[in-house]
Amino acid sequence: MNKFWVVTKQVYKKNVCSGSWLFLVVSPILLAAVILGLGTLIDNSAKDAKLAVVSPNVALVKQIDKATDAKATAYTQTRANRALRNEKVDGVLTFDSSQKQLTAHLTTRVGGQTIETTGITAVLNQLSMQLKAQQLHLSGTQLAGLLAPAKLKTSSVAFKDGKRVNKDASTDSVNRGIAIAITVLMMIFMMVYGSMLAQEIATEKGSRIMEMLLSSVSATTQFFGKLSGILLLLLTQIGVYVVAAGIAWPLLRNQAMVKSVLDSVDLSALLSINGVQIILFFLIGTLSYAVLAALTGSLVANQEQVQQAVAPLSILGMLGYFGALMAQAGDMPVIKIASYVPFVSSSIMPVRATMGFTTAGQAWIALAIATVFLGLFTWFTVRVYKANVLVYKEGGLVKALKSTLTFMKAQ
């Protein structure tokens, strides 16, 4: 066990201090900080626009002030023109009541703050309706009934075991976002850490250092030590993001950008998702791809062939990625079958679960299949690793695997 931890620490320390891994961890944090910093700078630098409303109607000015982000103040025509010329206001709103239909004119200053016209238009429409109601001698009740909009109720439903289940639309949107996040994270971690593990094994084979290492440490210990070291790197990266999010949250929750996102999303919908299953699928999927990377890394002859070792990971990863995207569109038969196939099931089944296309029991079955496959695949990979770790023949992954299988049968 001591030798196992020695190998684990060696792999972990070697990579955790490397510039490429530090850049991998820090770059998303810096990118998020730059985006939030720019948003904060824009929010703080933007001043409220000032609008001069040429009207003696104090109630109308207050309505416009509430309906728009601009600070609306009552002015006379002369004062409004002078204020606009002296850049004291950003716009002047005037009314023309000489016609039967209410008209208004907004004059804005070039180079001034932008004045949002949506709220102003809504107030003017309301005022115009009131004037027309007076001309037609309609009461307030009659006008309210005339302007009452039609009501359209919407609902989302899903069918589980032949039974209709009502779903909240906000829940569906949150689930869709979580499904996309699962797919992207799985793809990123699989490619990055799978390539890192394959590179680790191929580099040692290319330098012929394995001949010395195996004299003191068994191949099995080497295999699981390297695998554990890479997984510790993954957990370290996740831990850094958790700590960074915890430190930054007191500042983030007061940002206008973050508030708008939180206000538009019902986070209580997260309670409808089996988070334990998602985490387990993520772990099993990451482990499966890591073991595959170790297998392919042991089959190449040197570091220059690492791209060959990463190719199977890329192919399976892309299949899982596109399968997950297809799963969001609908529960097609091919997607149902693929959600139980190891490697791609780790990407597809969580998406089907979050979208409500499958039951919790079916998700547990897929998870059990993936777990059993991981155990058998790890046992097979250890045997291939032991048989091929000191083989330096060049000829491609397929030829190396055939030679290794032949050698294993002969033993």
Report on the biggest sheet.
4 strands, mixed
Strand content of the residues, in percent?
5-15%
Tally of helical segments: 16
What is the number of E strands?
6
The whole-angstrom Rg is: 32 Å
InterPro entries: ABC-2_transporter_component (IPR051449), ABC2_TM (IPR013525)
GO cellular component, one term: plasma membrane
Subcellular location: Cell membrane
Membrane topology: Multi-pass membrane protein
Structural overview:
The chain is 68% helix and 8% strand. The chain is of the alpha/beta class. The strands form 2 sheets. Strands 2-1-3-4 form a 4-stranded mixed beta sheet. The protein is elongated, with a radius of gyration of 32 Å. The model has no long low-confidence stretch (mean pLDDT 76). Keywords: Cell membrane, Membrane, Transmembrane, Transmembrane helix. Residues 21-380 form the ABC-2 type transporter transmembrane domain.
Indicate the topology.
Elements: H1 2-16, H2 19-45, E1 50-54, H3 58-67, E2 71-75, H4 77-85, E3 91-96, E4 103-108, H5 118-135, H6 140-147, E5 156-160, E6 163-167, H7 169-206, H8 210-213, H9 219-252, H10 256-264, H11 275-299, H12 306-329, H13 333-338, H14 345-354, H15 360-388, H16 397-410
Parallel strand pairs: 1-2, 1-3
Antiparallel strand pairs: 3-4, 5-6
Keywords: Cell membrane, Membrane, Transmembrane, Transmembrane helix
Protein name: Na abc transporter permease
Membrane topology: Multi-pass membrane protein
